[in-house]
Amino acid sequence: VQLQASGGGLVQAGGSLRLSCAASVSFNAMAWFRQAPGKEREFVGARRWPDRYTVYEHSVKGRATISRDNAKNTVYLEMSDLKPEDTAVYYCAAKTGNRIIVSQMAIDRAYDSWGQGTQVTVSS
Question: What residues contact 78, with CB distance under 8 A and at least 6 apart?
């Protein structure tokens, strides 16, 4: 398994959580996507290294933060002020090999390694 996502759970609206994505591969960018029941997978946020260029989807901007622990080769997605509409399965995705370009960072096809997903449920 190249990416292992964890940290999901049941959270009350207004609460916060931190998702983790532990990687066993080298990557130059990591993204988070989510998929709610009956909906298409959507982009949440992504960061590339080493310049740490970061993009967030509009609905999570200001509530989401992507960070990295280099020693653990783990990327985190911290989200605050959670809303019921944040309920979804969250996936991490890594870009290995050639550096990702900014215009591709929100595109799922740009990433070549995916985690298994972790469920986040926000109760109202």
Answer: 16, 17, 18, 19, 64, 65, 66, 67
Alpha-carbon distance of 112 to 52, in angstroms, equals 19
Which amino acid type is present at position 97?
A: G
Structure tokens at 73: 């080769």
81-117 pLDDT, tens digit each: 999 999 999 999 999 989 999 999 999 999 999 999 9
**Checking DSSP bridges between strand 118-123 and strand 54-56, what pairing results, if any?**
unpaired
State both tokens at 17: 């959580």
- Give me the sign of the Cα torsion angle 66, 68, 72, 74: positive
| Residue 105 in tokens | 């960072």
Least Cα distance to 92 among 9, 22, 37, 15 occurs for 22
For residue 43, CA distances in Å to 33, 73, 82, 88, 89 come to 4, 22, 16, 12, 12
Q: How far is the first Cα of the chain from the last one, in angstroms, to the nearest whole number?
A: 34
